[in-house]
Amino acid sequence: MIATIHNIDILLVEDNPDDAGLTIRALKKHNLANNLIHLSDGQEALNFIFGLERFSERKIEDHPKIILLDLKMPKVDGLQVLKAIRADERTKLIPVIIMTSSKEDKDIQACYKLGVNSYLVKPVGFEDFSKIVIDLGFYWLLLNQSPR
Amino acid sequence: MGDSTLEIERKLKSLEETERAILNILDDYSIEKIQAADTQKAVINILEDYSIEKAKSEKTNEALANANNELDSFSYSVSHDLRAPLRAIVGYSNILIEDYGDILDDEGKRVLNVIMKNVLKMGQLIDDLLAFSRIGKQQLIKVNVDMNALVNKIVDDLKIQHSSINELNIKCLINIKCDSSMMKQVMTNLIGNAIKYSGKKENAIIEIGSYADNSDIVYYVKDNGVGFDMKYYDKLFGVFQRLHSANEFEGTGVGLALVQRIVNKHGGNVWAEAKVDEGATFYFSLPNN
Fold it and tell me: What is the pLDDT of residues B54-89, one digit of tens each?
């Protein structure tokens, strides 16, 4: 259940519940998951960002601090979500970090062409995976200045 | 009067001879004509065979292109879809240890570690297989490569992981035009193997050198480690083929297959010599152009 849908730090868009579980656990361990919302497909993500359907209470200007975006998702995939975010003046500045299993050049190229802020590949090893999540949490939420 | 009869007879004979000669010529001519017709038929047959072969090879090319595309999507699937469940197994096993470690006895913890070790190995296998399949479709980008610089960088990286190298004898290597990132993979695999398989030797000595051989440059990596039995030579470069058990030396069995693939792609050859417990030398040649 979603506790709050306003003033979100992290919007995690990930269709694999096991991966999401690992990501959230790693962030929670370091107190980075306090204002996190997890959605399981691209359509939900777009509804959330643009305040549509079940998120119609949300204001578009209420940007999440960062969006952690998976690429391969059913219905609307990560690339389409990224495209939609960057295409709209009201949302195009939101920092987007792709987190995916794909190391394929064509995916990396396509994401950077659309103006992604960062592209991370999920490693198989759990320690490596945890470390990446924690590192990115600290960097993007604490170090990096977001354009709010 | 007698003369003219003789004359006439002579003329007749001559005419008959001429007639015979002309008939012979006509015969020869029809034989030649038949032969020409046969030759023409043969040439047409050859042309037909040629266009059949051409059509066949075009079909084969199309089939190959399709197969390559299928392989690409297969590799892509492998890289994405296989890794996700692996990550879950590792991750959630870790959670078990972290959150329930105090309830588990030593055996329970050991079992979990076996699970995780195998999953990580599978992840490594997937990465190796992918690297192997990618080489197939990669274009060679040939540049002048400073082989000593390349080898030194690899050794520095490897030294961080393996401190057991006693003696590393890097000769002055001949520079060559080749794909530098692929060559880095070749050298990393060969040098890594040399280090790995001399890991159990007290005085491990590894030598890396090169020499010219006609129009090729030959590079070699020599170690005095555990070597292998030349009896199994034909398995040496096979994918997943190993000549030592996983307990003795870790590895996925793709390293040498990758070396061979890259070297062949450059138009060169790989070969090796070894003696059990005395060491092995791996050679590869590259055309020098």
Answer: 999 999 999 988 887 787 777 767 766 787 888 888
Angle between helices A17-29 and B83-100 (to 10 degrees): 40
**What separation in angstroms does the CA of B42 have from each of B46, B51, B201, B243?**
6, 14, 69, 55
> Contacts of residue A125 in chain B, CB cutoff 8 Å?
87, 90, 120, 123
| Residue closest to B140 by CA, chosen among B280, B7, B5, B268 | B268
pLDDT of residue A75: 85
**What's the rounded Cα separation, in Å, for the pair B42 and B186?**
51
pLDDT in tens, B235-255: 888 877 777 776 677 777 788
Give the pair of three-digit tokens for residue B91. Answer: 């991750």
Percent of chain B with pLDDT over 70: 95
Collapse the DSSP code of A38 into the 3-class scheme (helix H, G, I; strand E, B; otherwise coil) and give the result: strand
Report all structural domains of chain A as residue ranges with CATH numbers, in order of start.
Answer: 10-138 (3.40.50.2300)
To probe the interface with B, which of A25, A70, A124 has the most B CB atoms within 10 Å? Answer: A124
Distance of residue A107 Cα from the nearest chain B Cα, in angstroms? 11
